[in-house]
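Notes to self after the Tuesday call (sharing in case useful).
The group wants a holo model before anyone commits to mutagenesis around the pocket. I volunteered. Ligand is 6-O-phosphono-beta-D-fructofuranose. Logging inputs and output together so the record is complete.
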Amino acid sequence: MNRVLVLTGGGDCPGLNAVIRAIVKRASQEKDWEVIGSIQAFDGVLSEPMKIVELDNKAVSGIHFRGGTILETTNKGGPFAWPYQNNDGSWSTVDRSDEMIRKLQYMGVNAVINIGGDGSQRISQALFEKGLNVIGVPKTIDNDLAATDSTFGFQTAVQIATEAVDKLVTTAASHNRVFLLEVMGRDAGWIALNSAVAGGAEICLLPEFPYEVSKIVEHLDHRFRKGRGFANIVVAEGARPKGGSQVSEKASEFAYENIRLGGIANQVMHEIAQAGFMGDMRTTVLGHLQRGGIPSAYDRVLATQFGVKAMELVLEKKFGHMVSYRHPYITSVTLEDAVSKSNLVTWDTALMKTARGIGISFGV
Ligand code: F6P
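Result:
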């Protein structure tokens, strides 16, 4: 019997369960393949006792519309940087990748499907270089991977952010206020850009285009002079002022890879007030509401396509590849290519042209 190990790594994302289900359903059509899952990314294999679950049709029945991941996830540590505590209480990391590969051999694992974002796929590539049979499945609500046209979870996040803009528009109009909505988007502003266009925001601040407060105030003044006494601003969490830096909290947990971003909307609100704008303003931080809950139909379909393709890549022994969507095909790219380039918003991106065409200001 052949065995494929599935795991989910990095931040969770609507659609992960639909991928897991599709892998299992596709594998069950083969007589000689079974699927097992590692709990909390590779930690399930590395921890003692191991945390491994059997994934058969019964285990994945009806999970396609459930948010989160039945395999749990983590965005800390991993086989190349396993955290351990020293006698003095301080923390260090150790590379346990060789040990993990040996463990997988001992477990009779023939292939691994790693569902995760850029950080997880870097781990996939490094393990592949060490001889492990790995297939990657891209996952990110930020849609910041260049190797695929889109990733599941992104459309759901855009829908949630747009619903938030819609709600804020009505209260902004009622109170003659300016609302600043902070959405996710660390390096890539796709969620902010899409929800600003869909929700009809007046201003949108993206990580890719450092803003000037004077330009924001100019746009607000112009709008208020025209008699429109309210405005909505969508701010990506990774936005920053020209010459300034991103706003973050210090990460408190050891081996936490990403700095925790947050607070830029509040900072922009104060900068606007300091620049002399007199209007009443409020901020809303949408946060992890964008990552939880039921995936949209689009994301469930894409996730299912990705899961089936991942299992087919395993059957074809196309290891070292990541599933990719290149309209209209579900195809694959090498992991090496997949992790080498990010998908960022550029000034000439089609949707940027549309946004500028309807008069959205980017504070530049
Ligand atoms: O990478 C996806 C993302 O949603 C980022 O936009 C955000 O900065 C990050 O995850 C937050 O993740 P967590 O709070 O789980 O570390």
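Two things stood out.
Residues 2-152+295-338 form a domain with the Rossmann fold fold (CATH 3.40.50.450).
The chain has a mean pLDDT of 95.
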